[in-house]
Design goal:
Elements lengths: L13 H13 L4 H15 L11 H8 L1 H12 L8 H5 L3
Amino acid sequence: MTTAVEQLRIRVPAARARKARAILNDLGTDTGSVVNMLFAQIVKQRAIPFRVADTDPETEEILRDPAAMAAINAHKAGLAGRGYTMEEVFGED
């Protein structure tokens, strides 16, 4: 059984493409194989198979912490009451 293929043309910054190709070569693969793997995972998961975000891991940890979010939301809302310490918000020792 023959599988139909489609050729893709993409635009990527040249420096990024060179760096990625060098890394992929060191890993024993190529850009076409990696794109094929990426597309296979997108189809399988029906989503991008990695997290796409513009925040750093520390910020993400804070955003998942209910106590920290309560403190942030209280501050934003200008609610009166006791203040939260940096330790309570950021979990510093």
